[in-house]
């Protein structure tokens, strides 16, 4: 119950795009259940509020703030509000990520740039803002939510997603090494097939029905079922907590073993 006690956690993308538990919402609530003070940031104010309401209903503490992760000024305002209220930032959790369809010949230049901006530049901007604070404090932990798509073809033609998540992995490793001696750890989590509102909304178009999508995704996993937001949440709590104090620069698949298989294609 107290693995995050006295820690201030900043979660970008702490809401959920639909009812239920997305990865970001579950992570924010899990950090709070372990005693962390959680700043829930989302481009959608209602989504951030909803997550904070869950936290407060369980006697947790936090803030709900609005910001678009692609905008450095909005990130700066979030950092300022967090420092004013809590005076420190121990954990930075970057959850925001989007997909856009298309292989290299089909994807539009606009969609490529947008995906890079939301999935990759966002993490650069939040890290740029938070790292000096963690350095002054003498430590911190960064969790970047990547994807199994960073290291595998997952069956969908979405080249910008693959490229952005692969770059996010190495961005994470670079920070891990550069800041290791300063007490700051950085790790990436690679979700596999997770049953979240994000998936229902973003890629259900690849299937006839939601049931068909679920059946295919369940079958793909060696465990014969998808994971959920809580699998990502608890992996995040572990990597952010002092239990993982000697772990940095890793990419942790949370995928029921999917990354080990050779037939990982949803297409
Ligand atoms: N569900 C899966 O199967 C799966 C698999 C691999 C990776 N992932 C990764 O997990 C993450 C998504 O997890 P989720 O379930 O919480 O998704 P989600 O789509 O529910 O997103 C969480 C929140 O991010 C917010 N958001 C979107 N754009 C934003 C922006 N520009 N600025 C600030 N907030 C913004 C949304 O409003 C939403 O409330 C992504 O990084 C995704 O690539 C998911």
Question: Could you characterize what this model shows?
Answer:
This protein is an alpha/beta fold. It has one domain (8-191, 226-256): 3-Layer(aba) Sandwich (Rossmann fold), CATH 3.40.50.720. The chain has helices at 23-33, 45-57, 72-86, 109-137, 159-179, 197-202, 210-220, 229-240, and strands at 8-12, 37-42, 61-66, 91-94, 140-145, 184-191, 251-254. Strands 3-2-1-4-5-6-7 form a 7-stranded parallel sheet, with helices on both faces. The protein binds nicotinamide-adenine-dinucleotide. Nicotinamide-adenine-dinucleotide binds next to helix 1 and helix 6.
In terms of DSSP E residues, the strand content is 5-15%
Secondary structural class: alpha/beta
SS elements, strand count: 7
From N to C, what is the helix and strand string?
EHEHEHEHEHEHHHE
From the 3D coordinates, which CATH architecture would you assign? 3-Layer(aba) Sandwich
Q: What's the end-to-end separation, in Å?
A: 41 Å
Distinct small-molecule ligands in the complex? nicotinamide-adenine-dinucleotide
């Amino acid at each position: 119950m107290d693995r995050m006690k006295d820690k201030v956690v900043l979660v970008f993308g702490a809401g959920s795009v639909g009812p239920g538990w997305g990865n970001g919402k579950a992570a924010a609530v899990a950090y709070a259940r372990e005693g962390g003070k959680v700043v829930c940031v989302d481009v959608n104010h209602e989504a951030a509020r909803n997550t904070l309401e869950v936290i407060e209903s369980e006697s947790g503490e936090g803030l709900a703030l609005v910001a678009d992760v692609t905008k450095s000024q909005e990130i700066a305002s979030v950092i300022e509000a967090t420092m004013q209220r809590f005076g420190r930032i121990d954990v930075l959790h970057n959850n925001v990520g989007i997909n856009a369809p298309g292989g290299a010949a089909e994807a539009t230049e606009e969609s490529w740039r947008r995906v890079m901006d939301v999935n990759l530049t966002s993490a650069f901007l939040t890290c740029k803002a938070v790292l000096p604070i963690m350095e002054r404090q003498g430590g911190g932990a960064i969790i970047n939510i990547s994807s199994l798509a960073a290291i595998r073809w997952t069956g969908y033609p979405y080249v910008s997603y693959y490229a952005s998540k692969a770059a996010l992995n190495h961005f994470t490793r670079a920070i891990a090494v550069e800041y290791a001696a300063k007490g700051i750890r950085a790790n990436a989590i690679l979700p596999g097939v997770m049953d979240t509102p994000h998936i229902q909304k973003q890629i259900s178009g690849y299937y006839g029905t939601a049931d068909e999508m679920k059946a295919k995704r369940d079958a793909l996993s060696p465990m014969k079922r998808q994971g959920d937001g809580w699998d990502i949440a608890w992996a995040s709590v572990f990597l952010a907590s002092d239990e993982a104090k000697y772990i940095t620069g890793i990419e942790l698949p949370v995928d029921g073993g999917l990354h080990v298989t050779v037939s990982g294609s949803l297409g």
